[in-house]
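Board notes (copied after class):
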Amino acid sequence: MGRYNDIDTKKWKEYADINIDSLWLIEKRDNSGAHNGNYHGNFVPQIPHQLFSRYTKKGDWILDPFMGSGTSIIEAQRMGRNSIGIDLLPNVVNEASIRIATEKREDTKVKIFSGDSRDFEIDRVLKLVGINKVQFVIFHPPYWDIIKFSNETKDLSNSKNLDEFLSSFGKVIDNTTQYLEKYRYCACVIGDKYANSQVVPLGFYCMNVFLEKGFLLKAILIKNFGETKGKANQQGIWRYRALASDFYIFKHEYIFLFKKVK
């Protein structure tokens, strides 16, 4: 088996479902079981599934500091991984807990909490479950102010400017990855935004935060997406806007993969 996964490379032909390309074309979201796309900012379960398949083993611990509706936690359960989820908003955590509980497995442990991932006492949780480190951290932060998730001042989607957003995100990285086992992996799922008639390359700004903190960049993956809630049934008007205002409609997100080497 692999050093960081359960893949038997001698049987490599049996893993046709594992994506090894940098372009991820996902036809539709997996809405099976507890997965659903009703939560704003949800990401497709296929993303954590692919990442966990490549970079974790059964029994490993996964940390998600922007848990949202619990997509990565549900997928971790399905795959026999243990998980810790944190989200700022108590109502979101309550809803996620109900969804996560519907797919509870006896062979996995799950701990979810409401709190600010910039200063949440993760060491207390690790002691509670009897571990010192986690083996993977998955980040799916707000795309700055594209979607306003709450009126909470601590909510990253309410950051007053780009520098404040990146500073807050950097604090989340610091607080969480100190508990990531050395030489293990983390990933950031993020998209860009368009404002003041120009592209704001939010994804690459976030990538640079990781690089400045000494992480090794292992991959830049491009994932396609189609109609979003904000643009649902509005293809015509968005096509008009693009033609009239000389811009292109975003149809992609980034998945940045990093390795902890310090």
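Comment from the instructor: DSSP finds seven helices and ten strands in the chain. The chain has a mean pLDDT of 91.
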